[in-house]
Amino acid sequence: MLAWRRTATAFVVAAAGVGRFLLPHLGGRIFLAAVVSAAAVVIVAAAALRRRLPPSTAPAVLSSARPPGPWLAAVALATAAGGLSVALAVLAGSH
Amino acid sequence: MVKRSSSAPRPGASTRWPRRVFSQGSDPDPRFSLANERTFLAWIRTSLALFAAGVALEAVNLPIVPGLRRASAIVLILLGVAAPAQAWFGWVRTELALRRGRGLPPPLMAVPVGAGLMLVGVLVLLGLIL
Hints:
The complex is a heterodimer.
Chain A: H1 2-26, H2 31-50, E1 60-61, H3 69-93
Chain B: E1 2-3, H1 19-22, H2 30-59, H3 66-100, H4 110-129
Helix pairs in contact in B: 2-3, 3-4
């Protein structure tokens, strides 16, 4: 689905921003946060790959649109954990 | 060709997680479930944006009074934490309503996010002026 692809791209851009701009400034303090945010990217990308679009020539089977409950919970948790870890590292680093 | 799922509950529906959602009612029109999933993802992206704004306020040197800047960053980060909770619980509540054929619940976080962003705007404005 396009929305999954869009979300995964946003996560990749955010993690790249953390790695590029925050890692050099905060060093070891933010390393754990960078690892957690990278793990969040992996989780979202895995969830997005499970929901990828079928080939346009294939017949659309609407009954296959089963909501991936565990993946949604994992993505929500990973977002909160990744964002909070980076935010806390930055708040502690700029103190 | 588009195949439609039947509205009758599936035999294996109760094995799907979360069970408290899928054990009730019957499968709704898949388009509604997909729209619910897109709303979930929109809240996740909102959370990402709120975290990014909070981190940027702290990380970038802006001519804002430090106390007000930190307060704005903390409000943004707290909203960023609350948004994934809204994403998950909103998805569960909406899926339940769809399965039971009831009216859709309102988003619980819409007003707090709006009020929080307004507060952040006021704090940043004050920080720039003072």
